[in-house]
Amino acid sequence: MCIFCAPPSLSSLLSSPLAPSERIWPRRRGFLLASSAALALPLLPAAALAQVDVGSASRLRQLVPAGTLEGAATQQYSQMLVQARAQKTLSPDNHPQLLRLRAIAQRLVPFATQWNPRARDWRWEINLIGSPQINAFCMPGGKIAFYTGILDQLKLSDDEAAMVMGHEMAHALREHARAQMAKSQATNIGLRLGAQLLGWGDLGNAAASLGGRLLSLKFSRGDESDADLVGLELAARAGYDPQAAVSLWQKMGQATGGKQGLAFLSTHPSGPARIRELQDNVPKVHSLYVAARQDAPLPHQK
């Protein structure tokens, strides 16, 4: 799906429904944050426009119903938690790293609606899975998971973890999976025009039949750049040092050690061009970071 993402066993995203009892997350385990939590922070002034330039989201995404994909992702996320719990790899609510991630999410989520009005109704959730994999992802609809490996092996600071989270949230907010699915399905069915397409037709049905590929779709370099920059701004607005985006990717490059096969770098390798683009955009969001720190100073864990 993206640089960090290789969600486990997602082939049944829409084709393997859960039993009713598995569709509800236990309250003690779930972290649900409605976007109305933004009311807890000062509202963005009207002039607080995007500082990074990523253009408009792909119009092609409109060919696949957003609600269908978000509902499917929610169902699969619930199934993933059930499986992780059974394997005793789902971190408890009092796990220090999980508490840390949820605190970061609390800061980032209020700024999500600037990039996608649908996020106002998402029920954001974040969980931590015990695994050496260097991995993290955000499913459509705001379902986030981190693996302990990405935190421990890369020794991420709060600022760097916020950049990872912002990047993954950006993929969901910009609906990259939805657009990629539309492109894939359009190729498969030859974009059958007319009444079928205008009424969703085959593409609408494809959201149910191709859900297994939703999070395994490979994003383009343009999508990755998009997520890098939107995530950078999200984190800066939340009071996280934008320079951490550069140090994060430097760590990513070092993590390879010249070896191949790391999932998060298999299709979107770290490199000078990616780091240079982030460096070029850090000054654009620096004032947002400074303002956020002045409004709500945060303890930082380096």
Task: Describe the structure concisely.
The chain is mainly alpha-helical.
Describe it.
This protein is mainly alpha-helical. It has one domain (62-295). Helices cover 45% and strands 6% of the residues. The chain has 10 helices and 4 strands, in the order E-H-H-E-E-E-H-H-H-H-H-H-H-H. Strands 1-2-4-3 form a 4-stranded mixed beta sheet, sandwiched between helices. The longest helix is centred in the C-terminal third of the chain and has 24 residues, at 272-295.
Strand-pairing-aware structural class: mainly alpha
The percent of residues in helical segments reads 40-55%
Rg from Cα: 19 Å
Strands, count: 4
Tell me the strand percentage band: 5-15%
How would you characterize the largest beta sheet? 4 strands, mixed
Unreliable spans: 8-30, 35-47, 189-195, 207-212
Whole-number tally of structural domains: 1
Order of helices and strands: EHHEEEHHHHHHHH
Oligomeric state of this protein:
single chain
- Order of strands, main sheet, comes to 1-2-4-3
The average pLDDT is 76
Assign an overall shape. Answer: globular
Cα distance spanning the termini: 29 Å
| H/I helix tally | 10
Question: How is the topology of this model organized?
Answer:
Blueprint: E1 33-34, H1 66-86, H2 96-108, E2 123-129, E3 136-139, E4 143-147, H3 148-153, H4 158-173, H5 176-189, H6 195-198, H7 201-209, H8 221-237, H9 244-256, H10 272-295
Parallel strand pairs: 2-4
Antiparallel strand pairs: 1-2, 3-4
Helix pairs in contact: 2-4, 4-8, 4-9, 5-7, 8-10, 9-10
Task: Record keyword descriptors for this entry.
four-stranded mixed β-sheet, 10 helices, mainly alpha, 302 residues, 4 strands
